[in-house]
Amino acid sequence: MNKARLSPPWCEYRSQLEKLFEQDPEVSVDNAPGSDRNIIVRVSGNAAKADALQRILKPSVTFGDVEISVSVVPDNDTSPEGYIRTAFAGNPALVEVATHTDSLGQPVTYTLFAPRAVQFFNDDISNPEGKTTRLLQDVALATLAGHAAVRISSAPLAG
């Protein structure tokens, strides 16, 4: 005699996502490792599609008191260097990106920004025009999500 099994609603939600994209060879749907409440939608080799899916899919769904997160992950170059190159493609602010091994054998990505000062209005009372002046590298440090393996500079990178 078979016993009836009930699946939690998030399993049904994952199945719906799988069926929605099952005919698309660039998209796969998986659970995050060790969690059935974090769904990962992987997009292979198509950054524009990954961006579009990230914009149109719900980032989270709530079933009662259980929240399920949905993350879209481009499955091409997931290294810090790859993300930086993709994000700054065609932007002259980025001069160079290189990954080297540190003294402990860990990869470290060095990002070189143009040695350029930028000004913007910021209610700076020390400046009669209310402007603030920063180096591009400092703006990058202040605005980009921190990653332990990324160093930002405007000094030339030695090979």
Salient structural properties:
Alpha-Beta Plaits; 2 domains; 4 helices; 159 residues; 25% helix
Description:
There is one protein chain. The protein is an alpha/beta fold and 159 residues long. The chain has 2 domains: 66 residues, Alpha-Beta Plaits, CATH 3.30.70; 74 residues, no CATH class. 25% of the residues lie in helices and 33% in strands. It has 4 helices and 9 strands; from the N terminus they run αββαββαββββαβ. It has a 4-stranded mixed β-sheet. Strands 5-6-9 form a 3-stranded mixed β-sheet. A two-stranded antiparallel sheet has the order 7-8.
Tell me the number of structural domains: 2
Order of helices and strands: HEEHEEHEEEEHE
Count of separate DSSP helical elements: 4
- What best-fitting shape do the alpha-carbon axes yield? elongated
End-to-end C-alpha gap: 68 Å
| Average predicted confidence as pLDDT | 81
Approximately how much beta-strand content do the residues carry? Answer: 25-35%
Q: Percent helix among the residues?
A: 10-25%
What's the number of extended β-strand segments?
9
Rounded to an integer in angstroms, the radius of gyration calculated over CA atoms is 22 Å
> Strand count, sense and closure of the main sheet?
4 strands, mixed
Alpha-beta content class: alpha/beta
Low-confidence stretches: none
Strand order of the largest sheet: 1-2-4-3
Q: Which quaternary structure do these chains form?
A: single chain
